[in-house]
Design a protein that fits this description.
Blueprint lengths: L2 H9 L18 E4 L3 E5 L3 H19 L12 E6 L15 E6 L2 E7 L13 H15 L5 H11 L3 E3 L4 E4 L4 H10 L4 H5 L9 H21 L1 H12 L4 H8 L6 H10 L9 E4 L8 E4 L2 H14 L6 H18 L4 H9 L4 H14 L4 H13 L5 H13 L4 H13 L3 H14 L4 H13 L3 H13 L7 H18 L11
Parallel strand pairs: 2-3, 3-5
Antiparallel strand pairs: 1-2, 1-9, 4-5, 6-7, 7-8
Amino acid sequence: MAFLGWLAALLSGCTGMRALCPLEGGRPWVEVRSPHFTVRSNLDAETAEEAARELELLREGLLQAWGGSFDPPGTVDIILLHNRSALEEFTDLRIEGFSTTTEDGPLLVLAGHAYAFVEATADTTTQAHELTHYLSELALVRQPRWLSEGLASYLETIALRPERREVILGRMHDAFYTQVRRHGWRTLDELWEWDRKGLLGTAESRQHYASSWLWVHFFITRHGARFEDFQKRLMHGEEPRAAFDAAFRGVEDLAGELNGYVRRPGHMNYRTITAPLAPVTSPLRTRPLRPAQVHAIRAQLFLMTPGSSPMEARRAHLEREMAEAAREEPGNVDAMLLRIRSTEDPFRRLGLARALVARHPDSGHAWNALAQALDAAGNTSDEQEAARLRAVELLPGSVSAQNGLASYYARTAQPEKGLTAAQRALALAPGNASVLDTWSTVLFQLGRCPEALEAQRRAADMLHEGTPQRLSRTVHDTLARYQAVCGPTAAPAPETP
């Protein structure tokens, strides 16, 4: 949709800056579902639908980095607010959007014109960067941190040209190029250690990001065939460092080459990649959102939006939104799910989950919440198994439900029963550390020790600075145990998830 169309949508009707519930004077909210995105927005329906189409177009453009035949399953949730100022209610930072991961998968929050990717002045940086992370986890079974961030930074400069049916990849990243020219860059050996460094300071973190972009840009431009071989090896699950050494065997002095690539005037190659861009004709399903659902979205934003607000203040906002949702529509699934997940007492949480299932027996999310609540309360009886089976029946494409069922069978020492669910979860989210951890546990219990060790190594590869500490500890502790039992150099058997 052209900028003028977006501007008209912004100026029409309610012009308030806050993303309020319609009953409080806010704009109506809609949900638009396309094949790969679920967009919830307080833009008008036509504009929200155009946003979904443009997201599909951006995805199609990014997929060209791995060839036109790569088309992974899965969807991304999008919350699209009607203007940039709308986010100010939820954070003290000046941001136009952010990304996070929920138990249901990736979530991208955008504001205002941030979805209009085909405009000549469009800034697709955040959207393209985060979507690249999501897609690369599906493409590359294993990937070191420098490659993950380098690819995302390389592709965030994407330019869509639908009128020419083409996409341009690999345009110069001016900010990172200036960074490395002025302040130098990290060696590749230093970047290989990034995964083990934990949180970095702002300046050091920026240098790691800029250096990763530089190395990827250099490899694609100067060693394209070898870099492609490296990625293909990662697609087949090879250990990243060994895969790199094999792909670049015989190449001497990469550091010297890179120095000349950057330092010599006019030496750096600005060549971009132009690929065909097929028209996107995605079927859309649009429905209005009820006021209680809007309060659930607002509560989610108060909890998840980056900023310095303490958790106590965030919970106060959550309570207000949940109270309004309960007043307007008692028992609304979205609102009750958020209430259940934010309740710390396991037995109160279980009571809420039982009530939700009783009210909504055909909701897969309700059954999944009940299974999780039973688990938190220490109940591993047949009731939890039944709840998890019902959840995957109603939500076959849910990573959370499939991984939850597999994890239940692993915890109850029934790996044969858990194998199918673990395979399904892995197919849906091959780059999810929690899914890989469950998959490796099932394999280990089945006596497939080398495969379990390799899967756990992949889980460790997928950890990043935003990963919850509990999951990071679990993955590393399990990896150490498998290395001791299976042998640190055990060769993986062929794996067909």
